UniProtKB/TrEMBL annotation:
Taxonomic source organism: Hebeloma cylindrosporum
Keywords: Membrane, Signal, Transmembrane, Transmembrane helix
Record carries keyword Transmembrane: yes
PANTHER family: GLUTAMINASE A, GLUTAMINASE A-RELATED
Name listed for the protein in its UniProt record: DUF1793-domain-containing protein
Compositionally biased region (Basic and acidic residues): 875-889
Signal peptide, first to last residue: 1-17
Composition bias, Low complexity: 808-819, 850-864
């Protein structure tokens, strides 16, 4: 036990030491509700604006007033009497971004917490986040008069700041909330990646000292700076955001204090209803966010969200601890990557229910291809994100695959291979029956692998059974086409060579998945054997064709001058398929060892045809195929070197230049593919014995009963005949046999393999004539050579350890000579919002400002810090013991006894 504590102390010592990603996630909860803190020039919560994933500023701000002097700790303004607070450190966990802020004599943590609730999908689907202040202390140990204030903006609700917005303030039983939306909402429409039909909320629980106000931003700041409280008044002049920036403010007066008894908590959210328009077997339906199954109205949801804060905090802490401890068994860099990646995947999805909102069993999950396009449930993006979903709660997977499987089971879908997505215009998901075969192998294989991985990790084959005929059709397509793919492309860059090795092997692994599914579902032996034998023979042919004489996998068959990173081999590991021989893995590992020294600063490309292009998700999948720890960790380091360096220029992007680190345009800032960071953790998940679905088991039992009954009856008849003969022969009385098992007949009727196909093709047009500015996005920038920038140096071990930020910590306070006497507030336009700010614009426009540099020296830890550390260690230890106990308690059933016995 003592050693555990020591280990955890070391681990925590590391965990608080992090280098800086290009952008730190603040709220990442839905495709339309996410915000980031750009950090290429250092981490500072203030002096810059948080932005949407695409770089547009969001103008969300926070202030603290200490003894009459106001400091800005979040966001930016040009008002000379407002001083800048200083961000002294930051800390990232999978659900939280924690910033330690110093403002005059006050020091506190500001935390952005994004609930990830794998076992409560109502809470998970509520598109709200917490911003809270805790661990307040005063550096002089004395009490001071302290007030906090934060405001949000209607910028969340439109991509065009010239649109007129409206707002209101509501006083509920237990909270005060502001809301804002467009005056003319446009259902299911997007502008510049923003939804035009959302309502933004900003809320606080009722408590003493709470004040609120709506109005021109400078008026609110002025009011707070001079009075320390807002005026509790509503502005009723609805106008565009660009006109005297209408602002929604909430403030709290803590009185004279040197500590906080409760955290100061704001709730922020962006809600749309309905949230999705999609096809189903019954036709087109509008769907609502899943949380509506529990709440009558938004007031009730907001009250509950705020009241639940202490529990939400405990759950977030427990989830973070579990993930970080398990990831630390891999490597410290890996802990950082799973911490950065998770919110991107979870925040790209929306859990929905039917528009009637009264059926909690009606669940469908939709994912947007955030950072790349407007595609809905993009199959290969989901394939990359799958490890995180399997790890968090594999039961989510069928609800995400379901809308695709449903659509393709209807007569509206006529292809014999799987579709790439449900359409290209999120949040409208009407399906796409385009007959291009370009993605046929990628998509069919992804669907089969995901379906089987879900069955294997949950033991639940209901989805696989329900859509078996569809899956079989796709497997048959692969049997015919996957060994010599020609006329197909990969999802990576639309590479279209014939005989692409990595694409071919994905199809083969998928056929192997099909054979295991057929076996689990007790299909006829001929069918099981056909897939099994096909997978085996295709795999051995593939090994002959794809592996070069020197042992590495070539990009296309026979071309030993081009190599590929066959990252789809990860899927073979994930689904425990031994279809590809071990020597392929070991030879490939040896090959990587020769390539690693030649890798670009930010990693190995996935195909030597595209030697400049690196994808984080495929580096991490590849790490999962490597047995040797050093080589595996080298791949993790490649991903880490980019994700936690200032060479990146967007929120954790999927694809970037191997040398410069620059993100290719539309290559996935904030992309859900980063669920791939969980690739190694997903390999640790136990494989379950796959049960026949319940209804099948019942029927099987009945048939078996019938058979047994029949046999017993025959035996009985035989006995009777014998008895009769004996009696005839011996003319003696014999006792009659009574214990004949009754024939029970067939069990409850099982659903058929396929849904009945309904035709709703005539019903798919948009009916409200809305404007849809979103256009299909082109392929990523494929001209890496245009970016001839000199690559920055790689991350060194020393910068890795210096994450506590310092520098201007003494700057702002010392400028406040008369900090006790606030200077008169001079109203000015504190900022102007433009629609054109973007990542590129922001980073080039802002040189290094007063924000801090990562390479400053860390101050010594305080005894209060050590106390906290101790508490956290205790908690981690408890959590770990719990984990152990749980693992002991539910030993996974014997693996694959069903699948791999031959
Ligand atoms: C990026 O970091 C390196 C080393 O940490 C530093 O030398 C360089 O100036 C930084 N670049 C920017 C744009 O901040
Ligand atoms: C606060 O920081 C911003 C951004 O760096 C700067 O423009 C502003 O002048 C600073 N305010 C003061 C009072 O120093
Ligand atoms: C506040 O932030 C500091 C620095 O990151 C950290 O050491 C401390 O644990 C945080 N406090 C809480 C309650 O999270
Ligand atoms: C997964 O989600 C289901 C449905 O919400 C829930 O019953 C189950 O407990 C969850 N499992 C885990 C491991 O969270
Ligand atoms: C919201 O629902 C709750 C519970 O049903 C009810 O008490 C409350 O009056 C409703 N509030 C509004 C604003 O409709
Ligand atoms: C609720 O939804 C489930 C799943 O879609 C469906 O099977 C069930 O029939 C629905 N129940 C009602 C009462 O509509
Ligand atoms: C269907 O997919 C094709 C190919 O990806 C695309 O060009 C087309 O716009 C899509 N159509 C719809 C309605 O989504
Ligand atoms: C605030 O200062 C910045 C940087 O100097 C400038 O770009 C911006 O236009 C100023 N905003 C206003 C409202 O003056």
């Amino acid at each position: 036990m003592y050693t555990i504590v020591i280990f955890l102390t070391i681990f925590l010592g590391f965990a608080s030491s992090q280098t800086i990603p290009a952008a730190i996630p603040l709220t990442v909860r839905s495709p339309y509700f996410n915000s980031w803190l750009p950090s290429t020039n250092g981490v500072s919560l203030n002096g810059k604006w948080p932005t949407f994933w695409n770089g547009r500023v969001l103008a969300w701000a926070g202030f603290v007033r200490v003894d009459g002097q106001t400091y800005q700790w979040f966001g930016r303004n040009n008002i000379t009497t407002i001083l800048n607070a200083t961000t002294t450190s930051y800390h990232l966990t999978p659900t939280r971004s924690i910033f330690t802020v110093s403002a005059g004599p006050a020091q506190f943590n500001a935390t952005f917490m994004d609930p990830i609730e794998p076992s409560d999908w109502v809470r998970h689907s509520l598109p709200f986040s917490y911003l809270f202040i805790d661990t307040l202390l005063t550096t002089d140990g004395n009490s001071h008069s302290i007030q906090f204030y934060s405001h949000s903006y209607a910028l969340w609700v439109t991509g065009n700041a010239d649109n007129v917005v409206q707002w209101d303030t509501t006083d509920t039983t237990s909270s005060i909330y502001h809301e804002a939306s467009r005056l003319n909402k446009q259902p299911m429409a997007e502008t510049g990646d923003f939804a035009e039909d959302s309502t933004a909320y900003y809320a606080m629980a009722k408590q003493s000292g709470l004040t609120w106000q709506t109005g021109f931003v400078d008026d609110l700041i002025n009011q707070f700076a001079t009075k320390g409280a807002l005026a509790d008044t509503k502005d009723t002049q609805f106008r565009p955001i660009t006109n005297n920036n209408p602002t929604l403010g909430l403030a709290i007066d803590l009185g004279t204090t040197k500590e906080l008894s409760n955290a100061v908590v704001w709730a922020i959210g962006v809600v749309r209803d309905p949230s999705i328009r999609t096809v189903a077997s019954a036709g087109i339906e509008s769907r609502s966010t899943y949380f509506w199954t529990r709440y009558q109205n938004i007031s009730e949801a907001i009250d509950d969200f705020l009241l639940d804060f202490p529990n939400a905090y405990d759950r977030a802490n427990a989830l973070d601890t579990k993930i970080m401890i398990e990831a630390s068994a891999v490597s410290p860099e890996y802990v950082k990557l799973v911490s950065l990646g998770l919110r991107q995947t979870m925040g790209s999805m929306e859990f929905t229910t039917g528009n009637a909102k009264n059926n909690a069993s009606d669940i469908k999950v939709f994912m947007k291809d955030v950072g790349v396009s407007g595609r809905v449930n993009p199959v290969n993006t989901m394939y990359a994100a799958l490890p995180a979903l399997l790890y968090l709660n594999a039961s989510m997977v069928p609800y995400l695959l379901g809308p695709l499987l449903d659509y393709q089971s209807t007569s509206a879908y006529t292809n014999t291979f799987a579709a790439p997505d449900l359409g290209t215009t999120y949040p409208t998901a009407l399906g796409n029956n385009t007959n291009t075969i370009l993605g046929a192998i990628e998509n069919s294989a992804s669907m089969l692998i995901m379906t089987f991985a879900h069955a294997l990790k949950t033991g639940d084959a209901t989805m696989a059974d329900r859509y078996y005929n569809l899956l079989k059709q796709w497997a048959d397509y692969l049997v015919t086409n996957t060994l010599h793919p020609s006329g197909y492309e990969t999802d990576d860059d639309g590479l279209r060579y014939p005989d692409m090795s990595n694409l071919a092997v994905k199809g083969i692994i998928a056929i192997s998945a099909m054979s295991k599914l057929a076996k689990a579902l007790e299909k006829p032996n001929a069918e099981i054997d056909m897939y099994k034998n096909k997978a085996a023979s295709l795999a051995s042919e593939w090994e002959k064709l794809a592996v070069s004489t020197s042992g590495f996998v070539t990009s296309t068959y026979g071309d030993s001058s081009n190599w590929i990173m066959p990252y789809h081999l990860y899927s073979a590991k994930l689904i425990a398929s031994d279809i590809i021989s071990d020597t392929v893995f070991t030879n490939q590992q040896k090959y990587y060892e020769t390539q690693i020294p030649q890798a670009g600063l930010y990693g190995l490309p996935y195909d030597s045809h595209n030697a400049q292009r690196v994808r984080s998700q495929w580096l991490m999948f590849t790490a999962g195929t490597i047995a040797d720890k050093t080589t595996r960790d080298a791949f993790i380091s490649m991903v880490h070197a980019h994700a936690f360096s200032n060479a990146s220029d967007a929120p954790f992007p999927g694809m970037y230049n191997a040398q410069s680190g620059k993100t290719f345009s539309l290559s996935g800032p904030s992309s859900p593919v980063q669920g791939s960071m969980f690739a190694l953790l997903a390999l640790n998940l136990p494989n379950k014995f796959i049960e026949l679905p319940l209804y099948k088991r019942a029927r099987k039992g009945a048939i078996a009963g019938g058979v047994v009954g029949g046999v017993v009856l025959l035996v009985a008849i035989a006995a009777l005949v014998l008895f009769w003969r004996r009696r005839r022969v011996r003319e003696k009385a014999v006792r009659k046999k009574e214990d004949i098992m009754p024939y029970v007949g067939v069990g409850p009727s099982a659903p058929g393999g396929h849904e009945s196909l309904q035709n709703y093709i005539g019903n798919t047009s948009f009916d409200n004539g809305e404007v849809r500015p979103f256009t299909d996005l082109p392929h990523p920038d494929v001209n890496p050579n245009a970016k001839g920038t000199i690559p920055p140096p790689p991350m060194s071990a020393s910068t890795d350890l210096q994450t506590t930020l310092q520098g201007s910590s003494s700057k702002s306070p010392s400028r406040t000579a008369a900090s006790g006497t606030p200077q008169p507030f001079s109203p000015s336009r504190s900022f102007l919002l433009t629609n054109s700010e973007s990542w590129i614009g922001m980073h080039s426009r802002r040189g290094s400002t007063s924000s801090l540099n990562a390479s400053s020296v860390a101050p010594g830890s305080s005894s209060a810090g050590q106390q906290e550390l101790f508490v956290e260690v205790q908690q981690l230890r408890r959590e770990m013991e719990e984990l152990r106990a749980r693992q002991g308690a539910d030993e996974p059933p014997p693996m694959y006894r069903h699948l791999d016995t031959e």
